[in-house]
């Protein structure tokens, strides 16, 4: 499976879940669910990347966590957390494996290993949200943008990312002008190439040197809870 979480399942667990799985292509900016609404499906990204965002009364959005082929979106619904606490938006287009809540819940009820995997995954999402809160409060925008681009690169498996400056500003909770200045600095340094809503990462190693500690921390949390991402 292109989804690493599904690939960790035993043959028996996958067999229980397989009838409920459907591969569906999603366009960029598709909304999977809204905050404070009942979640009807869970999503295993298999190419697409999903952002979990918090929306304020002003309409501004800030990203709390990012999930790609390394995980699942909405797993808490199968653990009886039916109401979403955030908005799920497709950040990068691609295939996502959709599963019914009842199907995943039924499979998990028959398998302690699958249930444990879901719980540990939700810990990784929670740890991401915690790290994001600290990152927004302490770290400079340039370090945060480097961290964010690297995470998107890891999850998409591509050095080319389709993002507008407006979208980047929303996810980072800053003004567009701030993103423009930082993107120009990174481009001048030869780390990225940016044009017409498309970012090409030219030097991932240098970008990692410029990223805040949160990039490595999130990866370590994932490795400890779920095993090294491949």
Structural notes for this entry:
By secondary structure, the protein is an alpha+beta fold. It has 9 helices and 10 strands. The protein has helices spanning 4-7, 11-17, 101-109, 112-138, 141-156, 165-172, 176-188, 204-210, 214-226; strands at 21-26, 31-33, 41-45, 49-55, 61-67, 87-92, 94-100, 160-162, 192-195, 198-201. The strands form 3 sheets. It has a 4-stranded antiparallel sheet. The protein is globular and about 55 Å long. The model has no long low-confidence stretch (mean pLDDT 91).
Name the features.
alpha+beta; 4-stranded antiparallel beta sheet; 3-stranded antiparallel beta sheet; 9 helices; 23% strand
Question: Would you summarize the structure shown here?
Answer:
The protein is α+β, with helices and mostly antiparallel strands and 230 residues long.
Determine Rg (CA atoms, Å): 17 Å
The biggest beta sheet, please? 4 strands, antiparallel
User: So how many helices?
Assistant: 9
| Strand residues, percent | 15-25%
């Amino acid at each position: 499976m292109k989804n690493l979480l599904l690939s960790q399942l035993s043959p028996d667990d996958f067999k229980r879940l397989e009838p409920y799985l459907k591969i569906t292509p999603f366009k960029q900016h598709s909304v999977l669910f809204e905050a404070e609404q009942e979640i009807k499906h869970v999503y295993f990204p298999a190419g697409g990347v999903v952002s979990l965002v918090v929306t304020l009364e002003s309409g501004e959005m800030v990203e709390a966590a990012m999930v790609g082929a390394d995980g699942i979106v909405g797993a808490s619904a199968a653990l009886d957390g039916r109401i979403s606490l955030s908005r799920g938006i497709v950040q990068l287009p691609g295939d996502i494996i959709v599963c019914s809540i009842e199907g995943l819940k039924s499979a998990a009820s028959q398998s302690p290993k699958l249930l444990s995997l879901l719980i540990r995954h939700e810990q990784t999402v929670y740890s991401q949200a915690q790290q994001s809160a600290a990152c927004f409060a302490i770290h400079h925008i340039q370090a945060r943008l480097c961290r964010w681009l690297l995470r998107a690169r890891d999850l998409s498996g591509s050095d080319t990312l389709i993002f507008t400056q407006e979208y980047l500003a929303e996810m980072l909770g800053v003004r567009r002008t701030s993103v423009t200045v930082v993107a120009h600095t990174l481009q001048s340094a030869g780390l990225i190439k940016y044009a017409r809503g498309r970012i090409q990462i030219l030097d991932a190693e240098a970008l990692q040197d410029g990223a805040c500690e949160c990039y490595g921390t999130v990866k370590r949390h994932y490795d400890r809870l779920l095993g090294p991402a491949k």
